[in-house]
Amino acid sequence: MTDPVVWHALHRLADYPVLDALAREGTKAIKLDGRACRYIYEAALPRIDWQAVLPSERAFMLLLGIEVRP
């Protein structure tokens, strides 16, 4: 499990390009809490282009408990 602060904090989608693109499919929000971010990542795992994920976004994914693929 991750830090509750990460789960409940609002995260700016523009800081995470892959998440931002995935979120645009279902919301116009510019910030989401960690739980919503994790859900979006998990729902899109098979479609994520791992080469497009920046190191900072990979670190964020790990904080959320997402298994980062090579």
Biggest sheet: strands side by side, in what order?
A: 1-2
Kindly estimate the percentage of residues that lie in beta strands according to DSSP.
5-15%
State the secondary-structure class. Answer: mainly alpha
Number of strands: 2
Number of helices: 4
H-E order: HEHEHH
End-to-end Cα distance: 21 Å
Q: What integer is the average pLDDT?
A: 93
What shape does the CA trace take?
globular
Poorly predicted segments: none
Helix residue percentage: 40-55%
Q: Tell me the Rg in angstroms.
A: 11 Å
Strand count, sense and barrel status of the largest sheet are:
2 strands, antiparallel
Quick synopsis:
With 70 residues, the chain is mainly α. The protein has helices at 4-8, 17-23, 34-44, 55-64, and strands at residues 10-12, 31-33.
Walk me through what this model shows.
The chain has helices at about 5-10, 15-25, 35-45, 55-65; strands at about 10, 30-35. Strands 1-2 form a two-stranded antiparallel sheet. It has 4 helices and 2 strands, in the order H-E-H-E-H-H. The protein is about 45% helix and about 10% strand. The chain is mainly α and about 70 residues long. The protein is globular, with a radius of gyration of 11 Å. It has a domain at about 5-50.
